[in-house]
Specification:
This is TIGR02646 family protein. This protein is mainly α and about 250 residues long. It is about 35% helix and about 5% strand. It has two domains: about 5-185, no CATH class; about 190-245, no CATH class. It has a two-stranded antiparallel ribbon. Strands 3-4 form a two-stranded antiparallel sheet.
Length: about 250
Amino acid sequence: MIKIDKSTISTPKILDQKNPQSKGSLATQALNADHEKGVRTFTFDSAIYGHASVKEALISVQNKKCCFCESFVRHIAHGDVEHFRPKGGYQIDPDASLITPGYYWLAYDFENLYFSCQICNQKYKRNFFPLTDDSKRIKSHHHFTNLHLEEPLIIDPANDNPEDHIYFDQEIPKAKDKKGELTILRLGLDRDDLNEYRLKWLQLIRDIARHAAKGDLISLNLLQEAAEPQSELSLMVRSNFPFLSKVE
């Protein structure tokens, strides 16, 4: 995982909550009204939050990578528009029952959306969203301004710095704290196929590093590029070659 800076792009017009006539605003208003009527199970329009303009904006700001496993996605799959705070309902444990409603009022909120590979999103994260203190959970749109009081136990790549919570021992992700531990476990970041893929990439990077150590400037440039945010698996590279984080 790497930190994602959404301040560098504009919110897609379809989700512009400042425009009360945008599709995202109108859909959110309808959800809020349904909640007032006692509705607790909602229907969401993926054509709005998953609109091409939304997906392309997320892909761009995430350097074409899954927000969780940091793998390139589009050459092999369409990828998902993922809700960090689950829209329909949430689980505090993957084996627990789904608790409804979820964060319905954030279904069309660009800040709550990321681009993810299907495996990270559909097989692992799904509706998992535990907090350090569940008594602080915000349960309706009436208290949305208090979201900052929540302390999620999985990494939010736009509001957390993943490097504060996760590092790599060779190709294997390791936790620095509880948030890192649950993120690795519940997002499947230590899955075998992903570790095998990382290892192959790391072996190639090590070969490049050996050439760079002999003074080959092209290899040095390639090594530095591999540690930059736009490169695949860049946190793993920086963890194994920490001096690259200090190279300007």
